[in-house]
Amino acid sequence: MRDVAGMVASLGGMAQKQQLVALGARDLDLTGSVRRNETRRARQGWYTTLPDSDPRVSAVRVGGRLTGISAIIALGGWVLARHPLHVSLRDNAARLRTPWNRHIRIKGRRIPGLVLRWDDDDVARRGSATSVDLLDALVRVVIDEEFETAVAALDWALHFGWIDWMDFDAIISRLPKRLRKIQHWVDANCESLPESLARVRIRQAGYDVVSQVWLGDQWRIDLVIAGCVGFEVDGKAYHLETFEADRSKDLDIAASHLHNIRVSANQVFNEWPRVMRAIEAAIADRSTAQL
């Protein structure tokens, strides 16, 4: 018996029958692997070791691959809130199935929780068995998603080295002209999703923002706003371990004559109007004090 599950795992957890046959698997091996629940059929001719809940399985089950924001989520990108499943299809895609059941055909093009994109051959030739190429996915994110969501995805991709500046320029060149302004909003120095969202929202409110500003040679301030507010964002998992250091940093920010504001990621996500009021009050107070 061939180790079909091992073959599938070596191919990224998703493989077509012809790939497995090329590696020496026989029909008997494939059937036995499924019966023993070592692998599952994501779709006719497709075998997987990934859990059914994995969006990559859902995309292949439909008949395509992850694209847009769904591809970014699958890579661990900075994305807030839930999004429908975005699936890229070839121009000639047929026998489409629902994301949750490979036996139920899709009727029509409007399925709740599912966005279908028919892409050209260039897109189809790039990427993996389960996802379009990252540059193609990011182009779709800028076109399809809200502005701050697109900026966060590009911040993430640059910050962690998923793309370089040549890739970034290539993405911008493929955008409609009306969307190319996004190039002036992306910041590779950004270190988290809440920091990215806060920076964009503050700039949209009309204030100058600088990311990751050095304070002496020990600290970096997440955002300096209007030259007078030191803005820090706490992510729960990380900052519980650095409580004392964060308090020391707050003291140094205040000692440098910046108005210190520290917020949680949750406050950025869910209480932004309140956060913005605090920022505006701090800037107003500083402006009044200088008169």
Key words describing this protein structure:
single chain; 291 residues; alpha+beta; Endonuclease, Chain A; four-stranded mixed sheet; three-stranded antiparallel sheet; elongated
Mean pLDDT figure: 92
How many beta-strand runs?
Answer: 12
Q: Largest beta sheet, briefly?
A: 4 strands, mixed
The order of strands across the largest sheet is 9-10-11-12
Which descriptor suits the 3D outline? Answer: elongated
- Binned, the helix content reads 40-55%
By DSSP (H or I, 4+ residues per run), the number of helices equals: 14
Unreliable residue runs: none
> For the terminal residues, how far apart are their CA atoms?
83 Å
**Helix/strand order, N-terminal first:** HEHHEEHEHEEEEHHHHHEEEHHEHH
Radius of gyration, rounded? Answer: 24 Å
Share of β-strand residues:
15-25%
- For the record, the count of structural domains works out to 3
| Structural class label | alpha+beta
